[in-house]
Every structure is written in structure tokens, then in C-alpha cells.
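User: I'll paste a sequence; please echo it back and then give the predicted structure.

Assistant: Echoing your sequence first, then the prediction.
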Amino acid sequence: MKQKSEIKRTGPELLKRLLRQREMSVFLIILLVVAIVAISAVITVAVSLFSEPLAVLLGAGPQTVGYSAQYLHMVCLFSVCFILSYCLEVMVKVDGAPQLAMFGVGISFLINVGLDYLFIMVFHWGVWGAALATGLAQLGSLIFFLIYFLSGKSNLRFRRFRFRLKDFRRILPLGIADCSIELMLGFLTLLYNHVITQLLGESSLPIFAVIAYLSLVVSMVMQGIAQGMMPLVSLAVGENDRPSIRVYLRKALLSVLVIGVLVELFCQAAPGTIVSLLLSGDSALFDETVSALRQYALSYLPAGLTIVLAGYFAALGKAGASALLSLGRGFLLLPAALMVLYLLGASAMIWTAALIGELLSLGLGLFLLRRNEAAAKKELDT
């Protein structure tokens, strides 16, 4: 790929080189595609063979396990589209077109909604149709991103590039933060489904489904702030502009603080309005869901602050701190808080487990931040 314009020397050493060259390797792209296809094939075969046990593991009951398995069968056929679409979306952002990336995601959303109506309401294809609509929506966004890169309008161009393993060894640890967030969502979903089923019964699973949907929206907003901060911090690091690094971190934390407080106030003042978007007002679980949301929503603010701190460490090139915070939060502190309440049989407090885990995670993040600031000050003094 040929470079269209020279880029200012900024960012950590690796990021600086990548931004200056603004190139992608034919070899790396082929390697990426082959790896994605191989992973997708493994996922498809595994889901096809173990769809029903997997559906049960995800929380499906006797009445829904058949529908869940059917949905998984269809969606997994499009796994390569899911993975490639997400990878190209990130590449579009790297290319300096975040608005276009958002537009591509919007196209996927509109295709999904339109096909859901067509396949379910018109063709009466049921769960199979819903899964097909989801898969085709991802295929649509994949085609959109491919057109952008193949049209010649992007800054990134294909060219021969020397493969160097050491670059991957430096890149991959920095991706642990984002990767662990995605894995954490699935892991915690499984854990919550198990705990809720044991303590409250299978009939209470819709309560967590509502909370999970709302939490996903809040998490996406927090991650968006963190991802917007990260390239700015990386560029400031490359220029050794320490004041700007602190400014970007403060602005990101302040943004999360404001949004977190507003969301919290809304969840406490009008939880019924929020729940009614996903659950009928005459449902037997409506009041329980409202109460659960009030408790669970207390975790949104500390969760957002922790997400920003993990992204900040990744942007600084502190892969160890970023991984420790992200993995510790998702696979140790949050699960530990939930399991302690489960073992104590504290069913009435089960929705506060997220708050306890997030506060512990935030404490760890602040400790790592203070240690990093002390190390930076010592380095500056010497």
C-alpha cells in the first residue's frame, strides 16, 4: 500500500511507525483472513455439534432450548462475517474515518430491523428468520467496509510488507483490554444465569435479560469514550507531551462521570420507564425488574471509570497494567463478588454484586494509576 500523505511523527514507537506509513500488508491481510476463516469454521462445527448443551449453558430452559439451538445454528454460519466486519470497522477508524465506521454499523442495524420485520412478520420464519436477519445484517456491513477499502478512497493502500513477529508480540498484549471486556460479558452472563436460576428460579431470568440489554448500551457508551481517548493519549506519548496526556485522561474521566451520574439519576428516578421499553407493564416480573435495575445501575459509574483507566494504560503502552485491570475486573473481582453473595444465599442482594465488584475494580485501577504516575514522576526527575 502506498502512503497518500506524510503523517506527523507521534504515538508510541510502534503506533508512530504504523501511523507514519499508513499501510497494510498483503501478507498480513491474507493471514488475517485465513485465521478468521479457520476460527469461524471451528466455531461453526463446534456450535453445530453442541448447540443444545451450549444453549442450556447460556441459560435456555426446557421450553426455549430448541429455539436457542436453532438460532445458534444459523448465526454461527455467519461467524466469518461478524469477525471480518468488526476488524474492518476498526481499520476504518484507524484510516481516520470514524464517522464512516459509525455509518457502517448503522447500516447493519437498519438491515437487521428491516429483515426482522420481513422474515418474522411477513414470511413467518420465526427464530430461524431472526437469526438469518442478524447474519445478513453483518454481511451488509462487511460489504460496505470492503467497498470503502477497494474503491481507492481510503488512505490505507495494499503493498508488500515485511512480516515481523516482534510487532505482533507488542501489539497483541495491548489488545487484551478490549478482548477481555468482550469475553467478560459472555462469562458473566453465564455466571449470572446460573446464580439467578439457583437462587431465584428460572422464571427470574428475564429480569437479568432486561438489565443485560441496558447494561450493554451503557457499556458501549463508556467504551466509546475510552476508545476516543486512546489514540489522543498515544499521540501525546509519542510527542512526550505529558500535560496533554493528563488533560485527555481528565476529560475522559469527566465525561464518564457526567454520563454515569445522569444515567444513575434516571435509573433511580424513572426505572419503570426504562424497564417498560423491554418488558410489559402487566408482567409479573415488572416490579422485581424495576427494583433490580435500581440496585444494578449503581455499578455503571465505577464501571465506566474502570473502562477508561484500562484504555488509558493500553494507550500508554502499559500492557501489563491494562491486562491486570481488565482481566482482574472481568474474571476475578466481579465473579468473586457474585459468588460470595451466592454462597451466602443472599438472594435479596444479588443485584448489588456488580456494584461491589466494580468498586473493587476501580480501587485496583486507581492504585495502578497512582503507581504509574509515581514511576513517571521518578523518571522525569532522573
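The longest strand covers residues 23-25. The radius of gyration is 22 Å.
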